[in-house]
Recover the amino acids of this structure.
DNA sequence: CCTTGACCTTCGAGTAACTCGAAGGTTTAC
DNA sequence: GTAAACCTTCGAGTTACTCGAAGGTCAAGG
């Protein structure tokens, strides 16, 4: 398979695969006589695995370690699990922060709409500037 | 005031202020004879305003436009409001996506723990690999 | 045989919003 | 007079790609 075929099979962009290879997440594949990358079915599986971990927000550095372990024949279970646990904490924090931001945006928008109804010439920036620093 | 004083007063890093200046979000301040940046109270207010918009996740490009309007004496209300409205939609999407990821991480962790209890030698990666592509 | 189009290659730069380090000048206090 | 704590600019690093340029390869059609 050539790069765009393996990419399509794994649901990825060819450029992303080259990038993953360049940072060591994916191994260097065999090359054809003219220098084209050649992939097999096992590469599709590996790339899907990587894509899955990325979809779970694991950073490429973690994924690189996991893939390295896998290639050395070691089961990367513990690493995957602790990465997932760390990630769930990070995701929770992120959700909390975004929820706070969302609430505040809503409040400001509602206030600005109310002000606008009363005095169409008044300014929302007033609201932004007056709100807690 | 020197840069680290105005930064402290506005709750920011001096390096960030230099960066904001370099990208045109903040105006170039006056300089002392030896080239040090000199700020006044009105700068503290402006920097707090910017910090506030950043805390609301508005991108620097939007903030730049808003600050520009403000400096030209125009009320940036409409821009602020539409930026906030756009942002609340983006934040909602982000929260939804993170919630999905969180649920899936939780599921995988729970499954992997269950598997681990039954067969301590089995591997969580199995779970990751088998789960929907 | 030649061309056309769709591939492929590498390399460098661009994205967002900072953050850090190096190399060097200034100010303040002791 | 000198040391600490500032300040300056510039360039590079961060994360995870994405895009464009310049050029090589391959299969099909005329």
């Amino acid at each position: 398979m050539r790069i765009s075929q393996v990419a399509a099979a794994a649901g990825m962009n060819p450029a992303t695969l080259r990038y993953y290879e360049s940072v060591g997440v994916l191994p260097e594949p065999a090359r054809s006589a003219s220098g084209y990358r050649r992939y097999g079915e096992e590469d599709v599986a590996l790339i899907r695995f990587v894509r899955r971990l990325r979809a779970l927000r694991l950073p490429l550095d973690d994924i690189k370690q996991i893939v390295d372990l896998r290639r050395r024949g070691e089961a990367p279970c513990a690493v995957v699990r602790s990465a997932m646990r760390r990630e769930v904490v990070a995701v929770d924090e992120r959700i909390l922060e975004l929820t706070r931001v969302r609430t505040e945006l809503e409040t400001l928008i509602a206030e600005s709409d109310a002000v606008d109804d009363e005095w169409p010439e008044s300014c929302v920036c007033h609201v932004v500037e007056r709100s807690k620093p």
